[in-house]
Amino acid sequence: MSVITVDNISKRYIIDHKKGKGGTTLRDMLAENVKSLFGRKKDTADGGLEHEEFWALQDVSFSINQGDRVGIVGHNGAGKSTLLKILSKIIEPTSGSVRIKGRVASLLEVGTGFHPELTGRENIFLNGSLLGMSRSEIKKQFDAIVDFAGVEKFLDTPVKRYSSGMYVRLGFAISAHLDPEIMIVDEVLAVGDAEFQKKSLGKMRDNSASGRTILFVSHNLTAVQALCNKALYFEKGRLLEDGETNQVIGNYLSKVSKTKLVRQWETPEEAPGNDKVRIRRIELIPEMREGQTHIDVRTPMRLRFEFWNLMEQANLNLSLHLNSLTGECIFNVGTQSKSYSKGLLAGECEIPGYFLNDGSYTISVMIVKDTVTPLFNMEEGITFDIEDYREGIAWYGKWPGYVRPQFPFVMQTLEQGVPIK
Amino acid sequence: MKSEEVLIQSGRAERHYWRDLWRNRELLYILSMRDVSVRYKQTALGTAWGLIRPLTTMLIMVFVFSKIAKLPADPGVPYPLMVLAGITVWTFFSTSFTQISNSVTLNSNLVTKVYFPRLIMPMSSIAVSFIDFLVSLGLYIVIAIWYKFVPDWHILLLPAFILLALLASFAFGLFFAVINVRFRDIAQLIPFIVQIGFYICPIAYSSRLVADSQDWWAPIYWYNPMVGIIDGFRWALLGEQAYFNPQSLITSIITIVLFLSFSLTFFRKRENTFVDDI
């Protein structure tokens, strides 16, 4: 059953550029047209204002079924938050319509409406009723909320005296105890410590297990992957893709990544670096099989890194970081530190096949002096994708994990037949 | 939990707006209580301020207008009582007018983050001034007892005048609240309006002085909708000796009804765009 049906919505903003000086004041407004106070904003240029249209969302249509957990991904300014605000009834679309069946709770912020002067107890009631809970519901959940947030001792302290961690925990605890049919969540998990994030993600998963529909915007793709079964990918106000999470995120990442396996600079003057070292070349060399066009999980690779050492004599070593596109470091390896004189140096690192899982990765290389002083860090020197490859497996879901090793793992028969009647 | 369908569309006035408003009455209560309990936090004198303000204003006005300017009170009415009655209703009107005008902008953090019928903001902002009003009215009663001044049957009409003052503040405040979202000029303008209002309304003086006046501006005076309300309020408290022209009350009622319906329409029309302008 579809609980949210979005039909062709668009949201336009009109940005006023001033031709003359001064801000938008009542005087300009009166100079414009008193009538337009009553009507919608006009998009024709008049008075001292020059209007420019900006479409935050354009012709977006999709529908969401009951119990779906939908992740919304896209860059900043792609229209994700605008969409959530329309679904939350905070802003209205310029055109198109949305049908929602069921009670909606939207969490666009942790601790909406918290008043710093009020105590934790008072704020629970304030925030709870802003999110649509009745007083009796709040009373019923009160102990659970306080317990989840772990703020028993500070219930009667004004929240302005709370640590930022406590504040966030209390805010999230209240929203976690809402009982809506549809939950709209914007980035709230981006706050709080890792432990609490885990707890709140778990809570949200429990919620969805009970048939609740969840819409979730986050830059944390790992969280989207962990939580959501469907995803929407937005770019510049348009819905580009709507489908199964891993597929959508994979496409999102491949659009983001700029696959370029060699970068080279001819002279030290134009090369990145500083007065001590300058980069000459960074290259990823995959050992492709015959007929292979893309790097996949089987492919061994070598990373070659060349740089000019401009110092007379120095103890140098290289340190390589391989990161996932979401920014997590998969591994870090370093070379031995040795003394080198002025000249062109090279380092090479081998990454075996059947090691990295499919995904997008970036490599950063750091030049280190005396094993402790970083001289230069070539951040995101190379960005590349690894495709999936499977043989003899009839399962096509996303292979979990960061690495894809083929460790010896065998099965054998110990006994024929089972001695149970 | 019943599932009901919500349709979100451009320019579509919420069909269930008034029912939504009723459903959110708990939120109205909680927001009112928020303002009330925040009001005197971290003040040493606390709610005593609600008494100190009208009392000092009255004392100053009695001194300036009665002792120095020698303005006459209505015959048979103690001047301090007349002034205090005027201050009480005027302060109620002007503070709730000010609070309502600023209610949407002061709650901008809510407007951008959560949906609820926006009328709740101006409505909840009345609570603080109403409580101050009750305190001030209590002060009036104490002073009336001191003067051994016993009100007559007119006092039964007092609630009607209180309601009128409230509706007046709502009618004007709502309009400014909407404009304030777009133009913060309003926040500067309001104290100014209140200050002018204080002099053009019969607070320090009795409307009888104007009624007896032959000046050209005297007829204009009666177009001020607050005149009927303040005179009526005083009349309810002080009885027949206080000057009250029922004609001015009719002006007040007509103005308020017209302006209230205008402001409500205006507010409802604009409330969906608050978030874009705030």
Overall mean pLDDT of chain A stands at 82
**What is the general shape of chain B?**
globular
Shape of chain A: globular
Mean pLDDT of chain B: 88
Number of helices, where a helix is a run of at least 4 consecutive DSSP H or I residues of chain B: 14
The greatest interface between two protein chains, and residues involved on each side, is: A-B, 48 and 39 residues
The number of helices of chain A is 9
Rg result of chain B: 20 Å
**Residue share in helices of chain A?**
10-25%
Distance between the termini of chain B: 34 Å
Oligomer: heterodimer
Number of strands of chain B: 1
Number of strands of chain A: 16
Give the SSE order of chain A as H and E letters: EHHEEHEEHHHEHEHEEHEEEEEEE
Rg result of chain A: 28 Å
Largest sheet of chain A: 7 strands, antiparallel
How much strand content do the residues of chain A show? Answer: 35-45%
Helix content of chain B: 55-70%
Share in β-strands of chain B = under 5%
Low-confidence stretches of chain B: none
The main pleated sheet of chain B reads as: none
Account of the protein in words:
The complex is a heterodimer of chains A (421) and B (278). Chain A is of the alpha+beta class and 421 residues long. Helices cover 22% and strands 37% of the residues of chain A. Chain A has 9 helices and 16 strands. In chain A, the strands form 3 sheets. In chain A, strands 10, 11, 12, 13, 14, 15 and 16 form a 7-stranded antiparallel beta sheet that branches. Chain B is mainly alpha-helical and 278 residues long. Chain B has helices at residues 17-23, 25-39, 48-68, 79-106, 108-111, 120-124, 126-146, 158-182, 185-200, 207-211, 218-221, 225-238, 246-270, 274-277; one strand spanning 5-9. Chain B starts with a strand and ends with a helix. Strand 4 of chain A pairs antiparallel with strand 1 (5-9) of chain B.
